Amino acid sequence: MNNIISSDFYRVRRGAAFRNTCLGLALVVIFMLIMFVFIQSDSFSEMIANTSELSIVETADIQQEMQSGFLHIENGVDFAVEILSESIVFLFFLPITIAVFCADFTAGTYRNTLSYESNRSKVYMAKLLMSIVLCFAMVIVMVIVCLILGSIAFGFSGFTVAAVGKLLITVLLQLPIYLATVTVCHCISSITKKSSMTIAIFLVGYFVLALILQLLTGVLSLPDWIMLIEPQSAGKFLAEYASAPSNEIAFVMVYYLVVTALAVILGVTHYRKTDMP
């Protein structure tokens, strides 16, 4: 098991998947930083006023309404929490999983892997553990980038130990969602054995689930907590844990831990039955 982890780490380190994924995530963070700074600037108000016939009060209301969708940002910590609440990092787990797991099937080297280690459950768990470590490392990299860029853009006002503690708690609370996302990606990969199919199924399922839940809550008037079974809504909810009901926080944590367990069981079971022609 240790040899498999070491070989996967060497392959990822020598390859460009992890580096390019972190770079892509950093570019998204930079774009969102520019967007946040622009929305909070006077130039945004002037642009709305110049392109419409609205009064100053109406223009200010529009700007305030757009800002209300974001957390109040005063420093780099607030910006990092805001990025975590948007849950964009979940989508970047997919290429990491593919680089660790699907690469074996794409290159045909899974025959060597399966013949080298007789216990296929250990092979699956070793690759899953490697993916979890890499994805969590990517979250840490993203948080560091957000802290640096956010501090440069917004300053250090309110940058206290309590604010840093809030950031750490947000990351820890979102940990079950990270685990569930990675394990589901691995489970899909063990079934499809193809990178393209894994990407398609994951992304379609990710967005279709959110669409279905929105339709159900709108048409059937279901309670809002139903939306928490969708990762993006759950991530935003946990980022605002200070004002969230404790029972709903517990529901999110338990739900994603159960999803993680089910995905691991299904993935291991299917991987043990993998044919090796």
Report the oligomer.
single chain
Query: What is the tally of beta strands?
Result: 0
Structure annotation, total helices:
12
What percentage of amino acids are in beta strands?
under 5%
Unreliable residue stretches: none
Mean pLDDT: 77
Listing every helix as H and every strand as E from the N terminus to the C terminus, the arrangement reads: HHHHHHHHHHHH
Basic shape = globular
Question: End-to-end span in angstroms?
Answer: 23 Å
Total of domains:
1
Largest sheet: none
Helix percentage: over 70%
Report on the architecture of this protein.
The protein has 277 residues and is mainly alpha-helical. The protein has one domain (2-39, 71-272). Helices cover 79% and strands 0% of the residues. It has twelve helices and no strands. The protein has helices spanning 2-14, 17-39, 42-50, 56-67, 76-86, 93-107, 110-116, 120-154, 161-192, 195-219, 231-239, 246-272. α5 (76-86) packs parallel to α9. The longest helix is centred in the middle third of the chain and has 35 residues, at 120-154. The radius of gyration is 21 Å and the shape is globular. The model has no long low-confidence stretch (mean pLDDT 77).
